[in-house]
Amino acid sequence: MMSWRTVTARCLPMSLLVAVCLMTAACDPPSSAPPSEQPTTAAPEPLGAPRDGMPGTLEELLAQGGEVARSWQSGARVSELFIELDEGRDWAGAQLTYLGPGADRMLVVTITPEGTGQERPTLATLGLSAVSPEGLGEVPAPDGLAEPDALIEAAAGVLESCGASGGPSGLLYATGAPISWDAGAGAWSAPPVWTATVFASGAGGAALDPSSGAPVGDGCVD
User: Fold this and answer.
1) Burial track 172-195 (b if 16+ CB lie within 10 A, e otherwise)
2) What's phi and psi for 8, nearest 5 deg?
3) CA 81/CA 175 separation, integer angstroms
4) How far apart are CA 72 and CA 9, in angstroms?
5) Rounded to 5 degrees, what are φ and ψ at 216?
6) What burial class does residue 135 get, using C-beta atoms within 10 Å of its C-beta: 0-12 exposed, 13-18 middle, 19+ buried?
7) Cα separation of 56 and 99, whole Å?
8) What CA–CA distances, in Å, run from 4 to 162, 190, 191?
9) CA dihedral over 162, 210, 130, 111, signed as positive or negative
10) By three-state DSSP, how is residue 219 classified?
């Protein structure tokens, strides 16, 4: 699926603190000391898990972006959602693109652990046209989309079989809007539908059904 964006893509070192207790003559006898606690090991997070400070689910991400979009323009619709992954495959940030009915700009909401920001680039500077209210009504709502962790897990084997370079670095949900809007004809050159693409950190990617995670065709993206 075509997208207006150029996709670009931290491991936190862990340390162990060792406590040392020095015994003195005033210490309690060993028999009165409490038993030492056994160390516990945290369960590993799945690939594609949100980083601390990020919304925890796709629904929460869309809700946070939607608040900004509603303050921008009534009737705005999300047309793209890109999630950037860090080296540990956690969500490093997200960008949601919104179109407004007849608006000559689009709204790009950026969400990171540090906060939320927005940009409003003009469509003309990207060689794109405003979508009519009727046309925007044909852009489907993001209903039934699989969670990012499920799609990233599903893409692992596809990326390997396609010979992609590097592991997953980003996930793009896209409808094709507004690129496929033909302003002259007042219609879509291709109906907007949700797709999902997982990009590799080096080159290549995997095209997946955004609901089931099944590969689309052979699943390979150049």
Assistant:
1) bbbbbbbbbbeeeeeebeeebebb
2) -125, 150
3) 9
4) 28
5) -95, 115
6) buried
7) 24
8) 24, 15, 17
9) negative
10) strand
The H-or-E segment that residue 62 falls in is helix 58-72
> In which residue are the tokens 């409490």 written?
34
Nearest to 107 by CA among 78, 82, 143, 136: 78
pLDDT tens per residue, range 66-125: 999 999 999 999 999 999 999 888 899 999 999 999 999 999 999 999 999 999 999 999
**Could you report the per-residue pLDDT of 49-61, keeping only the tens digit for each?**
555 678 889 999 9
Mean pLDDT score, 175-198: 97
Q: Please choose, from the candidates 212, 211, 217, the residue with its C-alpha nearest in 3D space to the C-alpha of residue 158.
A: 217
| Cis amide bond preceding 55, omega within 30 | no
